[in-house]
Amino acid sequence: MSAEFATPSANALPLHVLSEAALEGWLADQPGAVQAWVKAGGFSGGLGQALVVPGEEGTPALALVGYGTEAARRRGRFHLAAAAAKLPAGDYRIESGLPEDQAANEALGWLLAGYRFDRYRDQTPLAARLVAPEGIDAAQITALATGEMLTRDLINTPASDMGPPDLEAAARKLAEQHGAEIGVITGDALLENNLPMIHTVGRAADRAPRLIDMAWGDKGPKLTLVGKGVCFDTGGLNLKPGASMALMKKDMGGAAAVLGLAHMIMATGMEVQLRVLIPAVENSVSGNAFRPGDILTSRKGLTVEINNTDAEGRLVLADALALADEDKPDQIISMATLTGAARVAVGPDLAPYYSDDAAFVSALESAAAGSADPVWRMPFHDAYEALIEPGIADLDNAPKGGFAGSITAALFLRRFVTESKYAHFDIYGWQPADAPARPKGGTGQGTRAIYAALPALLKP
């Protein structure tokens, strides 16, 4: 699915954005007929309100959308998107009332409100189209929206149609679109190429595990994105209960996120040497599934005791991170739907991340605040390193006790990056209920914040 703004034309209906505080002053300058219509329509400027005002001949002359109060706006984002679905079909251009510093985010939200997952069922499209507000980078906003929609589509597709071969096909399609190079190592070739833990986690599935490796750009700093591509997670021999398995089609949300972010980077021609690594597997149950108590040897040579086969995402990421680190890029970023502990800590709306780099933290926090893409820093707490050291092997993939589950997972991953700057995002990748511009289902988290931070992070 792609996103696009309406073409500017004289037929676009003027749209006035009115907060509750601004409504009275705006009405005072309007003809009596407009005042009467607005009052009769019950329009108060509340968030999500929309009203079309007719002209003398009864045809639409202008439209109003509510912008609420400052307190109400702080409790959400993409406020114009809440009203867009209530407007009748047509093109709209913003005439007044939208704060300049919110124009880009509100325009993005309007585009995202047009997202429909229609692969299996026809969906009613968004009827109201927005002309890009003056002063925004319309091409960039379109790229951000299209990248987010790609992420949503990939997560929303069930594992029956989004297994490792399908995830590979999506990556190949993206590479072809942008002229990127792509290579894939599949099945037993993973062992031959020293990617043993990716092979071990995925070998029980009918659809072979693989490592997807995409590269784009030959100028600028080196950025490597690593995304967890567990296309379905049964939990392996430590089988999940049914309630916990229901959403496991989204366990490749990290891969979906980095592919969406890669589109944003490539579509806008960012000067960076981009590499995307995705270990794509299914964690299934069969006679050759890996077992609790097994000890695996990773690409890096570190041994890992398996205390829970449901902690498989960090295993496939570990091999991919070790491969990424060998190239010594300027920055490695991993994204994964890794732990339930992260959801308990911050809920579904925040993207928790780990970084010890003050410059990364500063750039990301600033970018997130301006991108309507909230993040929350979590600690690489060195005192917990002992929790991931079982004694019988170098590392434990599932420390007992349950304390600090997201932190210990991040510390585990950090062991595989020793030559590069590293940040890790433990995302949820799912919107549990409808919200403006974010329908229930798969969603991107952290990607727009990362995109906006990259120019500051990757200065030559």
TrEMBL record:
InterPro entries linked: Leucine_aapep/pepB, Macro_dom-like, Peptidase_M17_C, Peptidase_M17_N_1
Alphabetized Gene3D superfamilies for the sequence: Leucine Aminopeptidase, subunit E, domain 1, Zn peptidases
Q: Name one Pfam family in it.
A: Peptidase_M17
Task: Supply the EC number(s).
Answer: 3.4.11.1
The enzyme's first-digit EC class, named in words, is hydrolase
Q: Which GO terms describe its molecular function?
A: aminopeptidase activity
Q: Which UniProt keywords apply?
A: Aminopeptidase, Hydrolase, Manganese, Protease
Residues in Cytosol aminopeptidase domain copies = 308-315
What family does the Swiss-Prot or TrEMBL record give for this protein? Belongs to the peptidase M17 family.
Q: What is this protein called?
A: Cytosol aminopeptidase
